[in-house]
Structure formats: C-alpha cells, structure tokens
C-alpha cells in the first residue's frame, strides 16, 4: 500500500466534505486540488473519483435526516408517510433539469468546462452575484417556512438554479440552489434542507453514471483510494452540515461570496504566472 497516495485521498475527502455543502463549489475545489496534488492513477479513474467520492457526502445527509427521508413507518397508523412521499416527488421534479442535461451532455460538459479557467471565472462571477443577491434580498418577505410548503413549481425553479451549477463547475450546487430558493421566498433554513435532500438523488445518479462509464474493474489500490475518500468525506460532511445550519440561522452568504472572489483571483494569478 502506498501511504502517500492514501494520504492524498484523505485530503480529497476532507475538501469534498467541507466544500460540498458550503456555497463555494466542491467540484471547483476538487478540480483545483487535482491541479496541485496528483493521485498516481489513470485519467479515467480520476475523473470518476472526483464524482463518486461525493457518495460519502450523500451518506452524511441520509444519516442525519434518515427519519425525514425514509417514507415508511411501523409505528404510525399508516405504513406509508404521505408527506415524505410528497417531498420525494418534489425532489425528483427538481432533479429533472440537471438529470436531462447530465445524461445528454455529461462528456461534452467535462471537455469544455472542467478546467481551472472556467472554475476561477465561475468562482469570481458567482461570488459577486452572491453578494449582490444577498444585499437585495435583505428584508425580503419569507413565503415558505417548511419543506412541506414547497410546491411543484417552486421545486422546478430550484432545479433550474441547480442546473447552472451542473453546467459550470465552480458555481456551487448548494449555493445556487439555496440562493435561488431564497430569491423566490423560501426561508434560508428550509432552502438549505431542501438542497441537502436534493443532493441525494442528484449525486447518486451522477456517481452511478460515472461508475458505469468507468466499469467495475478496480485495482486494489484504486478501490482503497475511493473508499478512503468516501469515508473521510462522510465524516467531515456530518460536522459541516451541522455547522452550516447553525451559521445560516444568523448569517447570510456574503462572506462566502468574498471568499469565492479572492480564491478565483488567486488561482487565475497563479496559473497566469506559471504560463
């Protein structure tokens, strides 16, 4: 076993677990990290690894919100929890835009946009938008105060915001969906929770798509690296989700907007200096 490679996988898992839920773009950070710290693996495996490692982050949501996500109950009068099923149908509706684009254009999007230039520009542009939108929305009347109040049209709108992040790495899926939901009157906490739930089918589908394309023939080292990355991402995600929910009850995303702008500028400057 190559300990150095395992430690690299641990670092990727930490970055994934932190950035998946904060509005600073996990995909963008993973692409940038790959520019500086290279795993000694094939290009095909690395492309799959950067997506499938997200399964660890998904499991964190499932564990933390299991009672709200599981639609069956042996303790209640009715075996099927209708409210939970209704929520899942809305989540699936919100997944439609990203799912269609992902299935049809996944390889083309990777070819065009998965590079440090696109990530850096997206970090800066959407960092500015985060700040502007947060300032404009201060004092905005909240129309939706629970996940159950989200309607199918609202769910589809949130899915449309998610599509932006699916196309442009560096945007942030969680940031785009949370801010998009806030813009249409969803409370900050509800927007975050719906975004967490929405991540489950989205990331699961994206991961399965990558695994199928890669094939199921892993070397022992590849399997170890993937499992290590996923486990670390799971453990870090548990802590980050709890911290984020506590933070957004009292603060907005302005600080993350400034972080994105600074990071994008630093990355562009670094690669321009190297070129």
TrEMBL record:
- Does the record's keyword annotation contain Cell membrane? yes
Gene Ontology cellular-component annotations: plasma membrane
Task: Write down the membrane topology.
Answer: Multi-pass membrane protein
Q: What NCBIfam families does the record point to? A: PRK00281.1-2 (NF001389), PRK00281.1-4 (NF001390), PRK00281.1-5 (NF001391), undec_PP_bacA (TIGR00753)
Family the UniProt entry places it in? Belongs to the UppP family.
Task: Fetch the PANTHER family from UniProt.
Answer: UNDECAPRENYL-DIPHOSPHATASE
- Protein name, per record: Undecaprenyl-diphosphatase
Q: Which organism is it from?
A: Marvinbryantia formatexigens DSM 14469
């Amino acid at each position: 076993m190559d300990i150095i490679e395992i430690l690299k996988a641990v670092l990727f898992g930490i970055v994934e677990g932190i950035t998946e839920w904060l509005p600073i773009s996990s995909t963008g950070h993973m692409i940038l990290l790959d520019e500086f710290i290279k795993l000694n693996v094939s290009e095909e495996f690395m492309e799959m690894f950067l997506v499938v490692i997200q399964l660890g982050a998904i499991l964190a949501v499932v564990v933390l919100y299991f009672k709200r996500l599981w639609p069956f109950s042996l303790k209640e009068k009715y075996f099927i929890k209708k409210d939970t099923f209704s929520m899942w149908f809305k989540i699936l509706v919100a997944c439609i835009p990203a799912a269609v684009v992902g299935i049809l254009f996944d390889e083309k999007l990777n070819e065009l946009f998965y590079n440090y230039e696109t990530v850096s520009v997206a970090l800066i542009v959407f960092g500015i938008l985060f700040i502007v939108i947060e300032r404009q929305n201060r004092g905005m009347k909240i129309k939706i105060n629970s996940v159950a109040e989200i309607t199918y049209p609202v769910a589809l709108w949130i899915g449309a915001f998610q599509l932006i992040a699916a196309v442009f790495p560096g945007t942030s899926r969680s940031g785009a969906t949370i801010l998009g939901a806030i813009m249409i009157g969803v409370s900050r906490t509800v927007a975050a929770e719906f975004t967490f739930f929405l991540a489950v089918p989205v990331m699961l589908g994206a991961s399965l798509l990558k695994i199928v394309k890669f094939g199921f023939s892993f070397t022992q080292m590849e399997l170890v690296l993937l499992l290590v990355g996923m486990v670390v991402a799971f453990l870090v995600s548990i802590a980050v989700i709890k911290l984020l929910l506590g933070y957004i009850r009292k603060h907005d995303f302005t600080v993350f907007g400034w972080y994105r702008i600074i990071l994008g500028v630093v990355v562009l400057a670094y690669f321009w200096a190297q070129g």
